[in-house]
Protein 1
Amino acid sequence: MAIDQKVQDAHRDDRKSARIVGAGVHDGVNGMICVAEFAAARQVLRSNGLRQAGFRAELLERFTGRKNAPVLFQDGEAHQKQRSATARFFAPKVVGTRYRALMEELSERLVERFRSAGNAELDAMSLEMAVAVAAEIVGLTESKQAGMARRLNRFFDASDPQRGWLSAITAFAASQYKMLAFYLRDVRPAIRGRRKTRRQDVISHLLNQGYSDREILTECLTYGAAGMATTREFIVMAAWHLFENAELKHRFIASDEATQVALLEEILRLEPIVGALYRRAEHELTIEGKGGPIRVQAGALLKVDVRAANTDPAAAGACPFRADADRDLRATRSSDSLMSFGDGPHRCPGAAVALQETAIFLDRLLRVPNVRLMRPPTVKWNPLISSYELRGAVIAT
Ligand code: HEM
């Protein structure tokens, strides 16, 4: 390789979400400890005595308390128990059999609809895909999925920053209304069905544990955010990269599913959907950083900067901002997407689900003759999960 080419590659930045993050988007809090190195980030997420402090966990706790809180907001022993009890819904065998059939059938239906129409909105397709799969796992199967996708979409769409108390009150009232609509149309019928006959899903499990309707509703919203809102963005982001990078697209189509998943994880490493994770220290601890130990006082707030950790050259290797189909991350003993699914006890249980459904859907889509990205998505910022939102991408044949 010519020296000029090497220098160019070292500075190449393939991230499509970099501009919006660089455009003055800050979610920092004074006094917060920001952890940007991969090794230090992993220590934080694997440490005992840290509590979930992201996704407005501390605000939620004031209203609901910790008992029977959604799994994302639990910690310690209660959290561990809940994770082991729900692990069966995410076991590789279950994902590879029960959910796989649904993913294939749905992908084929969506792609067929697109083929006969000649064009489609990519984020509408990805929402339908993500909602259907997560709904099956959770047990939200008694209502029409298109309607549920619309209700959840309204709930999670990043709204413009609120200005003034009046718009804050209006937004609060609107979110209560949206929550009620989701409860009445989707969650309550699912609970009623499962009170009569339990099934193999999260809602049945929660009923067995004595959760109230309200507690089940909050868990369903958590899965809505954690499983549906994330995966829908990822499908669009991965498609965007593959449409615009001919080499990557060619590799993707020519590969088996395991390699396709590795390519998708490389894209996810570059473009994490959840850009930052937060924890509150319950007692003093020390994190080993490259520049020496970082002392954390009890009560301190820590921010794990996922975007920075994923592009730390100590973990990602050379040219960390490049989408590199041959990147080898085995030495990190981490998955190919590094911190994008988190780490430690809260690591995403749905990682294999999200990767498999994205691989299956994009494999079907990219094989459509002459399929192209007619209009790339616009990129918005969602401060709740330090994430981008991709809307308005249009594909055509
Ligand atoms: C590309 C898609 C996805 C991404 C990027 C993603 C990312 C994450 C991350 C970073 C966490 C850790 C949060 C923390 O440590 O504070 C997490 C947790 C979680 N995710 Fe995912 N996720 C995805 C898809 C899914 C799917 C498909 C499901 C289920 C259907 C799911 C369910 C959950 C749940 C229940 C948690 C909470 C786990 C706990 O706190 O113990 N996620 N996810």
Note: The mean pLDDT is 89.
Protein 2
Amino acid sequence: MQALKSIKGRFGKNRIIMSKDIEASTTNSSNGAKKKRPHAIALFSGGLDSALAILLLLKQDIEVTALTFMTHFGCDATSDRSSCGSNPYPMADKFGFNVKLMHLGQKFVDIVVDPKHGRGANMNVCIDCRMLMINEGARCMEMMNADFLVTGEVMGQRPMSQRKPVMALVDKETDLGGRLVRPLSAKLLPETLPEKLGLIDRNQLEGISGRSRKRQMELAKEFGLDEYPSPASGCLLTDANYSRRLRDLLKYTAEINFTDLNLLRLGRQFRIAPECKLLMGRDENDNKALMQYSNKEVYTLEARETGSPFGLMYGSPTEEHLRIAASAVARYCDQRDNSEVNITVSYRGQDRVLTVSPAEESFLKEIRL
Ligand code: SF4
């Protein structure tokens, strides 16, 4: 925050000082001093648009440091194909720019819990997300003494965050004093400060708008960018099933933590009662992953006499809740056709066996998350 204030102080409130600052740090051909190469921080998802934004700058001999964000919601750009992003390194290696990874951690969780600018069709908070990323980029810009910030946004491309009025709102709330540049749509947007100062040549930027990627593909060809990921649909917050689980978590948990969030991705899940939830592996990998979360404070359930999902029961279940959970585990074990199944319930190092009938599928459907 301090860093951002300092940006606003230097570059937002006093444009004359800002211009002098930048000019002093760049060129002075009259006295023969060497021109400083402009330096941009670029928000880089690893996708085509943000790559092209960077390439348009590199073409103008602008130094670029790319910033790739990660969150707990699938935007692990280095490994998660369901995210807004993709692995940033192949392109960075090919075109010779640096990438810095930054995990948004609790800051991102906070906007997901309480978004100022609402949600999209599911739990996605794209406007707050853009603002957070731009603010973090601005912090980085300040720390690295860079000249401006760049995004690969294309006007009108995404329904929530890339409409013109929303982009204007993002500009207003992040207030980088005109130092936010969107090279792909630059010619359709007001001139930015680095353009005015001659750090970037506006004529070499683009005027792309809308959802067609025709111009981007032409540019990719020009730049020799032959391999790039197809446009991703968004992070896990855009997924209806994940969003249902997250909504449930927020409804029944006063303070969520990173473990709660990580668990949302795993296995089958059932809301047994407001105070307890059952998680159950769908396959061996799920079972192994869930076992890593078992500890003395969590109930575990499994049919030890046969092939069985591994179940974890969170919260403070009553005996009745435990029997319901045991019958759900019985429904998915290899003895599901038996009239009764023995399920071992463990808690605080104590094992006991509950003999239950497998739950009806119709009942499980009602409580499934
Ligand atoms: S889908 Fe929206 S909320 Fe998710 S990472 Fe992308 S912009 Fe952010």
Note: Residues 216 and 222 are 10 Å apart (CA to CA).
Protein 3
Amino acid sequence: MRATDTTPSTSTTDTAIPATMTAALHRRFGDAATAVEVSEAPVPSPTAGQVLVKVEAAGIAIGDWLTMKGQPYIARPAYGFTSPKLPVLGNEIAGTVVAVGEDMPADAPVVGDRVLGFSQGAFAGYAVTKAEHLVRTPDSLSTVDAAALPVSGLTAYRAVVDEGATQPGDRVLVLGASGAVGTFAVQIAKAHGAHVTAVASARNTELVTRLGADRVVDYTTEDVEDLGETWDVVIDLAGNRSLRTLRRVMTERGRLVIVGGSGGRVTMGFGRTIRAMLLNSFVKQQLIMLVAGSGQEGLAAVRDLVAAGTVTPVIDRTFPLARIADAMEHIGSRHTQGKSVIVVGD
Ligand SMILES: NC(=O)c1ccc[n+]([C@@H]2O[C@H](COP(=O)([O-])OP(=O)(O)OC[C@H]3O[C@@H](n4cnc5c(N)ncnc54)[C@H](OP(=O)(O)O)[C@@H]3O)[C@@H](O)[C@H]2O)c1
């Protein structure tokens, strides 16, 4: 029996599940060198409605770096005020179901299924999560590509399709096109028939052009507001432009999807988002704050776009779990090119 067994699972693989696993433990808030420790931890057990997944790869996002740091401080009620609430870092997984709890939904994945989706404690050998946070991984999808989808792929899909409501022929501006979310957003907007302007530095021009961008604006030498043009959908991932600037580059009934924020450890520019929400009722333009969430429908839609070859995850770097501190430093640089993934296990 496993060390932490409290609720017996109804179904398991033939392969014995060990009592302990390697995990990236979140010891305290701070820099990677002191905040994270790769060590042994008990393998969790699935409770009702949950599955236990043997994690093979886990996507890493700026949200993981912020959780590690405990920033922005206004999020401390969720993170924990003085020390981390959650023992293991990571939020998105790809792997294989090895056990399921009781009372599973009818369409839930079963033991042996390859899955991808959302799970707390993802930087570990095993993770438990609700069945509704997962979708099945098609055979054609590699485990690393699958792990790249949940946070960044779903965020891009929700920004472009659900909130941006991108229509064929729309002019879409992606600010921050070369990062984890942006590389998905450019491709998803193109798949919806948009004309895409990607804002990225010169070193990423070739990358975003390859992904389908019709035009690239180098933010280090040009300002979009100086171009005298407007866009139907503006997706703000960079988070460093004022609301006034963003509204100037939007059409009269344009849609602004605020995804990213920047500006300090306390609120990370949340004031700008609040101002946008307040202004939204008084202007013709739509000013929208994106909360990506963990919806199964959107996740399945992104997975299907990838499985069909319409969208290709851009994998920046992979790191073994033992090098989680290096991975965190890399993500925290904010100069990634696409999505990085932690490879777990053998
Ligand atoms: N609302 C939600 O639910 C949600 C969900 C996920 C993510 N987010 C947020 O979305 C934002 C983007 O996430 P991400 O994972 O894509 O970030 P990321 O991967 O860290 O983005 C890095 C990329 O941004 C580019 N960049 C930096 N400054 C820029 C600027 N001023 N203009 C244009 N590009 C710039 C960098 O290119 P260079 O190296 O050339 O500078 C780099 O390629 C983050 O703020 C994240 O917190 C929100």
Note: Residues 149-163 form the longest helix (15 residues).
